[in-house]
Amino acid sequence: MTVQDPNLYPVTPRNRAKRVSERARYDRAAVHAILDAAMLCHVAYVIDGQPYCTPTLHWRRGDTLYWHGSSASRMLRHLKPGVAACVTVSHLDGLVLARSGFNHSANYRAAMCFGTARILPEGPEKEEALWAVVDRFYPERSAGLRPITGQEAKATMVIAMPIDEASAKVRAKGVGDNPEDLTHPVWAGVIPVSTVIGAAEPCPHVPEGMARPATLAPYAEGARLDDALRQTQAIYEGEAP
Amino acid sequence: MTVQDPNLYPVTPRNRAKRVSERARYDRAAVHAILDAAMLCHVAYVIDGQPYCTPTLHWRRGDTLYWHGSSASRMLRHLKPGVAACVTVSHLDGLVLARSGFNHSANYRAAMCFGTARILPEGPEKEEALWAVVDRFYPERSAGLRPITGQEAKATMVIAMPIDEASAKVRAKGVGDNPEDLTHPVWAGVIPVSTVIGAAEPCPHVPEGMARPATLAPYAEGARLDDALRQTQAIYEGEAP
């Protein structure tokens, strides 16, 4: 008998890494770190045998991924009865230029999550999620907003997908050239890339003298987006009931 | 009789935008601009009814998308006979903080492409592609590299997907609050985000005094990755035979 380690996602043929398996991890901490550092995920789902890959904003509470969208959306309408989905979050961290074509690579962090996605019915979990989609990213923001109308709540669908299986893959190192190639006379190295915050552009209707609230400090100009998202996720989880 | 405009992808139930349709475009120029400004795409495909969403590097020549990977990869083995795939490229450009939860949004550029993905057989198209994966991103680089071995070529699969249908969706504007919300006393605005190049980290085995080649100038520190990729794509297409 094997006992499942609660810190690990189960490893099955669906999520087991088939190649470069030394880059793969199945622990919740590794998967969550990648999910939480991004706003944008890609959801794969199937309608009548046709795969679709839809970009959307996601957030995580515990072992559940959430996303939302219009009640008119094709993806969301088809999710209604609960459908198999694969949600992937990827960060490109660097371009790796080697001395052979074969060893060119990229530094990245990617998490692939499998589960059944379901539309939340009207009720407390959906109501909470409609605020979480704001407060998870912008701490305490919902308290200052104009309230949600009934029509808006109706027009918005929230999807929840408990993560059944997941895997994380990370490459974070230098050039992986063959030893015999190291003297080949060509420049080689890593060109890092990162997603950073720019200067905020206040809406022209913001009254003169109204500053950006201090709760948005993680989104300071020049900060890394993944850092800001990790910080705001920690606040969101810390406030979890 | 309707004649298909050669500048547009055909619009079918598969790629027609179902919501916020004023953000949708079907012209090749709009789709290609989004594809070419990114290295990272997400490929959705189906194995035994299960959707998978795999991140990978892509490049485009004409109306065909290419990506590559190990012959051992699960995704690639299943693509062998030619399978339906959906390839999506997304750029997150800004966080849009409105005065109601409902009007919170994001600025983004996304392209969704549908087609049948096929593994290229051994032959000239694959050989060319094995160099293109380097030269499309790093102009003229392949000429200076250690040659590809037969074993490396065999271990690498190249996938080609002619784009049958595609759509682009772009949001690039300020806060979209309801007029009656504009006086609600909360800060609102756009926080732009962009993916930028960092300081190159040369491999420690690069001989002292060997500079980065001038052909890598688009990847200068502080440059936007999407700009660098657009520039290098223009060079790649300009050199097309």
What topology does this entry show?
The structure is a homodimer of 241-residue chains.
Chain A: E1 24-25, H1 28-36, E2 40-47, E3 50-61, E4 64-70, H2 74-79, E5 83-97, E6 105-119, H3 124-135, H4 150-155, E7 156-162, E8 165-171, E9 189-197, E10 201-202, H5 225-238
Antiparallel strand pairs in A: 1-8, 2-3, 2-5, 3-4, 4-7, 5-6, 5-9, 6-7, 6-8
Average residue-wise pLDDT of chain A:
92
- Look at the structure and give the CATH class of chain A: Mainly Beta
Strand percentage of chain A lies at 25-35%
**Helix and strand pattern of chain A:** EHEEEHEEHHEEEEH
Overall CATH architecture of chain A: Roll
- The overall strand count of chain A is 10
So how many helices of chain A? 5
Low-confidence stretches of chain A: none
Biggest interface: A-B, 98 and 98 residues
- Rounded to the nearest angstrom, the radius of gyration of chain A is 21 Å
> What does the largest sheet of chain A look like?
6 strands, antiparallel, barrel
Total domains of chain A, how many? 1
Strand order of the largest sheet of chain A: 2-3-4-7-6-5
Which structural class matches the secondary elements of chain A?
A: alpha+beta
CATH superfamily of chain A: Electron Transport, Fmn-binding Protein, Chain A
Overall 3D shape of chain A: globular
Q: How would you characterize this protein structure?
A:
The structure is a homodimer of 241-residue chains. With 241 residues, the first copy, chain A, is α+β, with helices and mostly antiparallel strands. Chain A has a single domain, classed as Electron Transport, Fmn-binding Protein, Chain A (Pnp Oxidase, Chain A). The first copy, chain A, is built from five helices and ten strands; from the N terminus they run βαβββαββααββββα. Chain A has helices at residues 28-36, 74-79, 124-135, 150-155, 225-238, and strands at residues 24-25, 40-47, 50-61, 64-70, 83-97, 105-119, 156-162, 165-171, 189-197, 201-202. In chain A, a hairpin with a 2-residue loop joins strand 2 and strand 3. The longest helix of chain A has 14 residues, at 225-238. Chains A and B meet through strand 2, strand 3, strand 5, strand 6 and helix 3 of A and strand 2, strand 3, strand 5, strand 6 and helix 3 of B.
